[in-house]
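Hey, I'm writing a tutorial for new members on how sequence and structure tokens pair up, and I'd like a real worked example in the thread rather than a made-up one. If someone can provide the structure for the chain below, I'll link this post from the tutorial.
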Amino acid sequence: MAASTAVSSPCATNMIRVLSMLGILVLCLFRRVEAHEHHTDDIPEGEAISAEPPDSILWMHILIQILSFGIIFPTGMVLGILRSRWHVPVQVTGTILAILGWFLGHAHKGRQFAPNIHASFAWMLMLMLTSQVVIGIYLKLHLTKGIHSTVRKYVVTTHGILGKALPVVSWVQMLFGGITALGFCRGDHLGQCLAHFIMGSAFIGYGIILTILLLVGQVWLKRTGRSQEFFDSIVIAAWGCVNTFTEHRWGTAWVQNDIQHTSMGVVWWCAGLVGIWLSRKRGGRPKRNLIPGMVIFMTGWAMSAHPQHLPLSGMVHTSFGYTLMLAGLVRMIEISFVLRDKNTLSEDGTDANSFQYLTPLLLCASGFLFMGATEEQMQMLSDAGVTHVSYVLVLFSFAFLLFLFVNLLLHLYATHAMPETVKSDAEAPRIKGTANGHARGPSESRLIRDAEEFELEGLMSDDDSLESTGAKRTQHVH
């Protein structure tokens, strides 16, 4: 015990020194930022940005923040769920880059910006990041005596929640950054801008969730005793209720788009109720159904015929509608002919059919198409002479890259949390119904436990590790 204390004491001292140095660095940056003023002298009256192009420092800010918040932190989050020893180095690297990018965002010249949501929201994001750093250092100190033994588990839970929320908040901030850089979404354009970015992000989020359930979430889904369409239908019904009462400004005259949006909301909650009812068999067991796919298809059809003011906008909305229709059609074909009303094709749910990747990919593409079809964006592209074909291909490229990144993160998680331990080949020798006489793979209870654990291995105290090892040995004895 004395040796352990002697070892941990220098580690704690070094960690405190690192924390102090980091705090001094952050304070210096804060003072430098406070001394910097955002000039607005060159911004024309009634505009949100000046005519100057972004300078190299601003481009560095954009690229560094995309790298840290968009790539490094999500990767570190997955490593944290896996309790990997690489979690801390990756997150430290991301934090250093994030601080550097934040500093560059206040040191740029060139284009000037009026007070905006991106600058205001940045403080919330940096507060979350600072909280994560402080909590991580606290956990790394392995303080487990006295009040720390009670507080530690709540701190670990908070660390996990903030870590998983950070990519979502970062996505919102990156959208705010793009809007601010172009001076969009102000005045009368705010309403339709919110609708496009919220709905587009919802389609992308839906595609990501379907990908997670497809590749690593089947065990959890089976444990709930519900079909995937049950949860989809609940969200569809709730979203339809919101759209029914928010798409029209009550007390004013009805216009063509108001009628279409409100009727779409009515269809959503009506269809959602049907989907909820059809998601269970007579005996209460979960059952697949086609209602969510039909709703996606109908929404795409409605949006493809949505009236627009610009020809370019009409063609982009048509492309969005057709992509959404294809996503709904593919979903219905998948359930009916590929899965034949089953949840998965493999017993453990880890082997997805190649056809099943199409629906989440098309949903991601639909989200990018819808977010890229605001009035101001369409006017800017139309004035620049950009064709809808070129623009749609660029947006599809973004969807492919995002879908690739999500699959890389899920592959990283699956290969460590759910390793393949046996051959699942149909031609593999079988003894007593199992391949090579071995078990089919990790038990479902182990998969569920691995999926739910978030405490980092590197942040666990020695006592925690000994208790965990002792519990495992006890299970083996029994």
